[in-house]
Amino acid sequence: MKQFRDILETVGSFGRFQKFQCFFMIGLCSVTILHQLGNTFYSASSNHYCKVYNNQTFINNSTIKNCTIPYTIADDELVWDSCTRYDVNVSQGVSADVCFPRSNYTLRCDHGWVYDKMWYENTVVFEYNLVCEDDWMKQLSKSVVPLGNIIGVGIFGQLSDIYGRRPIINSNLVLTVVVSIGTAFSPTYAVFVIGQFFLGVFSISILITCTVLMSEMVGDAYRPMCVIVASILCCIVYMLLGVVAWLCNGDWRYTQLVVGLWWAVFIPLVFIVTESPMWLMQNHKYDKCMKILKRMAKLNKTTIPDNLFDEEKRKSLKLSSKANGPKVCTRKSWKGSENSLETTIPGHRYGFMWHI
């Protein structure tokens, strides 16, 4: 049985073909960081306090804030309460008679909150009021992504071994684009969380499968370099995500939409990325493997013999004929009962036994 690393040495372990493929796969790996760390901007929070009337805006030091919001002094600093307000009626305006003397009775923020929008125009926290007793929902929206990562690696890692690397990359790429753009139009918090979960599933599957595909396509000496370049590019993309969030004025919907369109740029890779020739060889798909190896040799300006897999094909055909051959029933042993006849099929690898 030929070793694939020996075949790579023949066709070129890091020629033009591998460089072309790795260029796109490294780019695809890099954008997965957008979903791994995107919630840093989607679920960002800021200073806030209770709202007492509609269309109220955040003002750090205002008469109405002084009148309605409790505060404490800690370490010579004024600390405003962000979850309660005084039980005062300011619908007719703010005056000394309304605000003083203050009652010690406070209420929960029954009219919502006002948020400091200096850096973020609209985040998931602002839109769905994920503060105070609902702060756990903000943390949940961040936690579902790594949860999706765990499930995605477990499921699609196995599927890529069964069905190949290319189908998993292509299907997850399309699904990521659809879910990412769709999440930007989430009507409710629940839809947003579900979207983030599936983005965690799909994006990590692309990252892992692309990394495996690159490793199987290049020589041993070039694998660390490919992984290092992909890691560096991930850092650069993450910094660019901050720029995107800034250009979108911190609006999570626009940021999420841009991320989805960013992924859509890679849709043509469905037609460019090839299957792993190592996987094809290990799964006895020699004709498809040979086709890719010939393309690889052509771009790398090397040659490959046409009879490279002739011996493997003969062995595979021989084993297949044995497996599909007639069943031979032999009496091996009697174990004290007429219902203990053992039957076997010749052939060690494909043999199995019935106990009748």
Protein model, in words:
It is a single chain. The protein has helices at 4-11, 16-31, 33-36, 39-42, 63-68, 96-99, 124-128, 135-163, 165-183, 189-217, 223-247, 252-264, 269-272, 277-282, 286-300, 310-323; strands at residues 48-50, 71-74, 77-80, 84-86, 106-108, 113-115, 342-344, 353-355. With 356 residues, the chain is mainly α. Helix 2 packs antiparallel against helix 10 and helix 9 (165-183) packs antiparallel against helix 12. It is elongated. Residues 329-356 have low confidence and may be disordered.
Write the layout of secondary structure elements.
Blueprint: H1 4-11, H2 16-31, H3 33-36, H4 39-42, E1 48-50, H5 63-68, E2 71-74, E3 77-80, E4 84-86, H6 96-99, E5 106-108, E6 113-115, H7 124-128, H8 135-163, H9 165-183, H10 189-217, H11 223-247, H12 252-264, H13 269-272, H14 277-282, H15 286-300, H16 310-323, E7 342-344, E8 353-355
Helix pairs in contact: 2-10, 2-11, 8-9, 8-10, 9-10, 9-12
Features:
single chain; 356 residues; mainly alpha; 8 strands; 56% helix; disordered C terminus
Quick summary:
The chain is built from 16 helices and 8 strands. The chain is mostly helical.
Series of H and E elements: HHHHEHEEEHEEHHHHHHHHHHEE
Main sheet strand line-up: 1-6
Shape: elongated
Helix run count: 16
Largest sheet: 2 strands, antiparallel
Number of strands: 8
Radius of gyration: 31 Å
> Which structural class matches the secondary elements?
mainly alpha
Unreliable residue stretches: 329-356
Oligomeric composition of the shown chains: single chain
Residues in helices, as a percent range: 55-70%
Q: Give the end-to-end Cα distance, rounded to a whole number of Å.
A: 38 Å
